[in-house]
Amino acid sequence: MNEPAPISRRALLSWVGLAARLVLGGVLLAAGLLKIGALGQSVNAVRGYQLLPWELTAPVGYALPIVEIAVGALLVIGLFTRVSAIIGSLLMVAFMIGIGSAWARGISIDCGCFGGGGEVAAELAIAAYPWEMLRDAGLLACGVFLALLPRTPLSLEDRLFPPLTTAETHETLETR
Amino acid sequence: MSTQASRREALRAQQVAQAKASRNRKMVAIGAGVAAVVLAVVLIVTFVSGMGSSSVSGVPKNATPTKDAVAIYGSAAKAGAPTIDVYLDYQCPICKVAEATYGEAMYGLAKSGDIKLVQHTMTFMDNNLSNTASTRAAVAATCSDTYGDKYAEMTTAIFSNQAATEVKGSVGYEDKLLRETLPAQLGIAGETLTSYQKCYDTQAPKSFLDDVSKSSYAAKVTGTPTFKRNDVVLKVNPGSTTAEQFKSMLLTGS
Question: Which of A116, A164, B45, B181 is a good FRET partner for B156, with 20 to 30 A between their CA atoms?
């Protein structure tokens, strides 16, 4: 009788989801906040990759930190988790394409992931690329997990838009 | 009995649908609010930062035919002389070293017509240092080309006034230096000086400088100083390559 209730697989996964939310959200938030004070540098970092047409580099450089902060904050507080996780995952895919292509082309740049960016010594850049790819792959995994299972504990959306259970519909019925 | 049960069920279904609809409305409203705020911030920041491009044509007198660089002593170039493209930024510390070490040799060869010297003055350091000194200095140099034919001399003069250390958010080159002191040093005076100062005050060459940056990006130049000989990047290290070695690189490629 006093046995603890077995933790259901679903509950366990939801706590993994919370961890994924905080990791992906926290990293995006930090990355955005570190860049927001130096937006010009963010533009230069985008230009360092030599991927986008010139006209797009400035808008992307300015928008990226803002989007990172917004998506990171939404993930941390747990609001619109699925949409935010999808955007976060797309960002990670974009970053991996950027870093991977810089690596493949032999361009030596600081990724500018957390501010900074631009050209650096070749050995430094080449040594950092695998780790940056690995980090982004891990973050992408967090994003994909959350896109599939967005319901996590301690999320604002649970309070704002609680799931419609039968109990609740009864309640609604009674209050009317 | 059965009609009552089905009526109750219908009522319940209606209530559930209503609850769902109101939940969806709330979700859409909050979602739209968040999206609108993010979009508004992005637009404001992009517009504010992208402002200030002048519409006045400030293409300098000695601009290259493509109007995205300046030819230095271009009329002196002998037939068959190699084209040397120099990419620099007036706030880049290594560019200052390069100018101090190679400037004389480089301008000498351009004057004698042994090289065709083309300078691409970039302004990306403004982004790194959160100031406008690279652009203002580049504007001054461009104005000095049109009014006074002093692009090379102005470049040397600007670099010799570069701050000893890079300080983020510092003013960098002062307006007074660029507008009065340096042109006076180079002997720009009288009506030419008036025109030069008008050019500087209106920042007329800004759109030309945007084209310089744009074409440098297209040429895949992301760092300064970059030296190219007939479109091939020269492996120059201003810290170790001597002026003699540099001169030979310009003339022969190695």
Answer: A116
